[in-house]
Specification:
Layout (H helix, E strand, L loop, with lengths): L1 E5 L4 H12 L3 E8 L5 H16 L4 E6 L2 H8 L12 H19 L3 E3 L15 H9 L5 E2 L11 H4 L17 H10 L15 H12 L5 H6 L4 E6 L2 E5 L3 H13 L6 E6 L6 E6 L3 H13 L7 E9 L5 E9 L13
Parallel strand pairs: 1-2, 1-4, 2-3, 4-5
Antiparallel strand pairs: 6-7, 7-9, 8-9, 8-10, 10-11
The structure holds iron/sulfur cluster.
Length: 338
């Protein structure tokens, strides 16, 4: 008998795997990789996750979330949490995706580390049956950490698994989990950072993308770089805050220089940021973003500055705008997405 575990990288899902193995069931695991990490961060995270599951001799499948996931993010049936986190819809999406993997892997049911009462919306006793129903996998999702508090699942009823050895954890207390981790000698350092969608500041930028129709995987990745300004519904600017961010913005522009709708601003004649413009700017939008780019450059106040703009597209070309860097002419806060 084999099960597929949804692995979050946390202790609870490690324990759920271990408890399932203890019942004599073979386990493989799946991790759903959010689409906003930089490649180097992804690599580090995956290495960390592999190390965690290696303690249990489990094969880990990494599923990259893509445009399909963005549809959930854009319009979650059950709404958002405190930021742009559509947790309930996200859970249901993960379950469906994992459920679709069962046949191919020769697995018969899913396992998760969810605990009754741990999270108000998605992990209360009443929410589980509703979630399971909505995934189309009712009865096939086993939650070993709280199994004895929940109605028996199909795997238990059919005798595929016995959960008599499992605890009855509920609520946010971690005492039992920590005792079990010590008992099984598990290392369990959770991945750094957590889910960015729960971050309020990041969430505002995500919602700005959603509102303006710019939600893409690339767009999400860029939200972690620089200062973000909404110039108009059709145009936004991202101003690098340091050399590393300037390089990222430059590489982003360069890779996509043949695609319409990207602009790279640089104030000439003094050190300063690179600014990436995305969308369809009006003449005012361009002028305002050129001003903002100057605002963060080392040019002294009351200086006329020439701002170079690289315009992407099949005929990518260079243009310039002249602006006066003058105090009080443009307040960045009126455009900032915070
Ligand atoms: S915290 Fe993030 S990954 Fe987890 S369910 Fe919520 S939105 Fe999805």
């Amino acid at each position: 008998m084999k099960a597929l575990a949804l692995f979050s990288g946390g202790l609870d899902s490690l324990l759920a795997i271990k408890l399932t193995q203890e019942a004599g069931v073979e386990v493989e695991a799946v991790y759903f990789l959010q689409p906003f990490l930089a490649p180097a961060e992804e690599e580090k995270l995956i290495a960390h996750l592999q190390k965690l599951v290696a303690q249990l001799g489990v094969k880990l499948h990494i599923v990259r979330l893509d445009e399909e996931y963005l549809q959930i993010l854009e319009n979650p049936k059950h709404g958002y949490g405190k930021a742009a986190n559509p947790c309930l819809d996200c859970h249901i999406f993960f379950f469906r995706k994992a459920g679709a993997m069962l046949d191919k892997l020769g697995a018969s049911f899913l396992v998760t580390g969810e605990v009754v009462g741990q999270r108000p919306k998605s992990q209360n006793r009443g929410a589980f049956p509703k979630i399971d129903e909505e995934t189309g996998l009712a009865g096939l999702i086993v939650r070993p950490l709280s199994a004895r508090l929940l109605p028996p699942t199909i795997p238990e009823e059919k005798g595929w698994i016995s959960l008599d050895h499992c605890p009855s954890i509920q609520g946010r207390q971690r005492k039992v989990q920590l005792e079990l981790a010590a008992k099984y000698g598990l290392e369990y350092e959770a991945p750094a950072g957590g889910c960015l969608l729960t971050n309020v500041e990041y969430g505002r930028k995500v919602k700005d993308l959603i509102k303006t129709g710019g939600l893409t995987v690339d767009g999400l990745r860029l939200l972690r770089i620089g200062r973000h300004f909404r110039l108009s519904p059709h145009f936004k600017g991202i101003i690098g805050r340091n050399h590393r961010e300037n390089q990222i913005l430059f590489r982003y522009f360069y890779r996509q220089r043949n695609t319409e709708g990207l602009y790279l601003f640089k104030a000439l004649g003094a050190p300063g940021p690179l600014t990436l413009g995305v969308g369809k700017p009006s003449a005012d939008d361009r002028q305002n973003l050129a001003h903002l780019t100057c605002r963060y450059s080392d040019h002294p106040w009351d200086t006329p500055v020439l701002v170079k703009i690289l315009v992407s597209g099949e005929k990518h070309h260079l243009t310039t705008i002249s602006v006066l860097k003058k105090q009080g002419t443009l307040d960045p806060e009126q455009f900032r997405i915070t």
